[in-house]
């Protein structure tokens, strides 16, 4: 039994959504890490000696559809949607350029990922309301209450 081709695995787990860009975003429907970035297992090595490694999905998509990522580069989402895996929305950039773009994005955003206004930003650019809600969930779990995990919205 041969493993499913990587492109088929990726395209089976995305939904195409119009988010106001020139082409639709490919929103990942699989697992994400704690920062909301999609990840997936990739099998490496010859058959019989395969091992699997966990990668951020945008790096896998960039390598599979566009080409290898230069050493020391990061993959930036041109659409600003971290769950998007559309190859047309991904670009390999230096860490310094990625940070510069993130600062520009953050300074022009009107809301956080959960919809709170910019008036709730703290000095480091995070959202005070999101931090309060997160800490309230942590305290409730410590008290033994059953609190569902709240992931970031896709806005």
How does this structure look, described?
Strands 1-2 form a two-stranded antiparallel sheet. The longest helix has 15 residues, at 128-142. It has helices spanning 6-12, 57-66, 95-108, 128-142; strands at 14-17, 25-28, 39-44, 51-56, 74-77, 90-93. The protein is α+β, with helices and mostly antiparallel strands and 155 residues long. 16% of the residues are buried. Residues 151-155 have low confidence and may be disordered. Helices cover 30% and strands 18% of the residues. The protein is built from four helices and six strands; from the N terminus they run αββββαββαα. The protein is globular, with a radius of gyration of 18 Å.
Quick synopsis:
The chain is of the alpha+beta class.
